[in-house]
């Protein structure tokens, strides 16, 4: 039976994450933590670099070139970038499809009918009225608590602010695992509808080594009918394989639900991985995974209609003056493959 679920979302507490973490996850706050977090702001490049001691982890980029703020790259403790370089820093032999897939980001494909997810310079000027943009407003740095706090505005083409987003990134390191704990609260400045759409929500575009080997060209069409071709490339060094909390592996994770998904691979002769965790208090938990073999790694609780082949549908509404909070953990690892036991040790 077709099930239609419409959610009216009210304010969630920003502090609830701490109260619901497991004993394993709370170990991140223990004496086992490694080097202290250090931030370096570059106003000319509009970036905030995040270091563990002297080792770079990522950059928060608040330039407007990518139509939303992003984190790029995501570097392992050993210095390997697990995110695609393009379009910021293109690398040899990597794909150049889907130019809106930039580093690590969060947005959505249908906000009051506007597509925030697919917006890029590839969109023709005559079609721009169908797309939204997330503009950076401000940020605060709190090294004592390893926290970067940002404020952004989700705007329509005419400049109307639909959502004011307040996000905290808390960075931590334990052993060979680097963590980003994200808490994002979406404050509605107008009545906001997030209509069920497969294009969302939290996304990472991974390095070529973490893609799954391709066997045939594919054509992917977004909600606006714009196609992106994914070509077959040389598969040398392409070693990615997904693993979900449900034990599903490979490209079969796409369109399934899970508490977390890990993406393992070998890069420069070293085992590396990215693991993304859904929070139990998030809408639609456990989330569906919009995780593609060509390198898109995304968690989307609101794409249920496509993922369930029409059996489910989940639409979110945020009334003006109210808020919705979502929380995600991203773990960047090197040195060993992430298996079920290891991934479960760091879940919420």
How would you explain this protein's 3D organization?
With 348 residues, this protein is mainly beta. It has a single domain (3-344), classed as Beta-galactosidase, Chain A, domain 5 (Distorted Sandwich), CATH 2.70.98. The chain has four helices and 21 strands. The strands form five sheets. The protein has an eight-stranded antiparallel sheet. It starts with a strand and ends with a helix.
The tally of domains stands at: 1
Radius of gyration: 19 Å
- Number of DSSP E strands: 21
Question: H/E series, N to C?
Answer: EHHEEEEEEEEEEEEEEEEEEHEEH
Uncertain segments: 1-32
| CATH fold description | Beta-galactosidase, Chain A, domain 5
What is the helical fraction, as a range of percent? Answer: under 10%
Per DSSP, the total helix count is 4
What is the averaged pLDDT score?
Answer: 90
Shape: globular
Instruction: State the separation between the terminal residues, measured CA to CA.
Output: 32 Å
| CATH architecture level-2 label | Distorted Sandwich
The main pleated sheet reads as: 8 strands, antiparallel
Which key terms come to mind for this protein?
4 helices, four-stranded antiparallel sheet, mainly beta, disordered N terminus, 348 residues, Beta-galactosidase, Chain A, domain 5, single chain
